[in-house]
UniProtKB/TrEMBL annotation:
Residues 265-453 form the Carbohydrate kinase FGGY C-terminal domain. It holds the Pfam family FGGY_N. CDD domains: ASKHA_NBD_FGGY_YgcE-like. Keywords: Kinase, Transferase. GO terms for biological process: carbohydrate metabolic process. This is Xylulose kinase. Gene3D superfamilies: 3.30.420.40. It comes from the Bacteria.
Amino acid sequence: MTMAAGDDALFLGIDCSTTACKAIAWDREGRAVAEGRAPIPLSNPAPDAWEQDARTWWEALALATREAAQALGDRGAQRIRAITITHQRETFVLTDERGEPLHPALVWMDARCRAEVAALAAKVGEARLHEISGKFPCTTPSLYKLLHLRNRIAPHLASRPVRMLDVHAFLAHRLTGRLVTSVASADPTGLVDMAARGFSADILAWAGLSASEVPALAEPGERIGEVSGAVAADLGIEAGIPVFAGAGDGQAAALGAGIVGPGVMYLNLGTAIVSGVISREYRTDRAFRTMMAATPGAFLYETDLKGGTFTLTWLARLLGADADAASSTLAALEREAEGLPPGADGLVLVPYFHGVMNPYWDDAATGLLLGFSGGQGPAHLYRAILEGIALEQRLHTDGVERASGPITELRVMGGGSRSALWCQILADVLDKPIVRAGTSEATSLGAGILAAAGVGAFAGIEEAAAAMTSRGEVFVPGERRAVYERLYREVYVGLYPALSGAMGRLAQIRESAR
């Protein structure tokens, strides 16, 4: 079935994140015309363990899509011309040959695989793993979680045929009947040969997988199938709508912020803090991880701090706020924190709440608070979290610039971008303009751009991005940047190197006490 993409066409960007699935219908100008949203449960069954029932990804997608279609009405839903998926990365599920889950999915935050990281790095070499996959060995890539799952959690799965599916592959199979994923969705698993843009035969062998146990690969924006009749009826949309390969949420966010070339860094202030710049050159460095970009043939030099807005949620919970009251609690803290001086009256936070990836690659690293005194309160801690994440982002950005060249601005999106205080702190700490993306839903918009380009609404992905993205409010560095420069140079950059040994010993003691 061929569907023309006229001026009234809509493009459905489906964003299946860690805690919710959003389905947003975008028009040719990048305006969100309708939206549906559904939660996804997240389980923490043991320390460092984070799991989901993969079937809830599909249930949430169906509910969110129906809600968006209902908002459009019967005739409006007929305007949907293409669908693309973006999603939480590194999360994967093992299924049978029919795509039915054999075990709960392991989520990107799951960090039970430290022993497997050490064992494979010792066997193969950190440098070789990094060179092939673009990822320095740590607990984040799916590869090590897979080894832990088959070695320790469910060893019976090591002796039977399986399919290892990332979130894109699982949902694409439900939508189209094909076991296929985007190369930009598969690469965060750590199984991909980045230079060859295909699964690495060596890494598959080290993982105990055959080529038949991973999905087919497509480039971002490539047509991978169409929505079948039975599925379309369940989703409230028309049968035959083409589905185009997407990308992981970080890569899609860059595209949705209008970043298709070098010099501008995207910064996603979400559950994790993720940033990156485009490069045409494949390069590896401990200062970043190398990812496939959502534009075919390009790469992202990407940084990742796993303790993002999660850290603010932790603070609200620490203060006794339940899920319903967390937003109002944090809003009150922000109002109070606005009146505090830079440096939060001497309180500095290192935000390693889930270990640290770039540039230190230390899964044993922990969060750190320096400078407590009796005159401080919750608002000081709130401001210290915002500042600590900004200081860490300065560390990341400096490292990327050494490889990519000058970065002229950072384009910010995600839930945290709604905070004017945080945006200004980032501008002051990084001494660079912080520009809000035209929408905080840049991740879904990135998927919508791939869908629009794929169905022929534009001549290509870059043209679609130029037409569908915009820039919002600009925050420029202010007079407080001098204070933050001293805080960064004289205090922050030395904290982890000075205390990393103690952090490692503390992790050993913690493990022995369990």
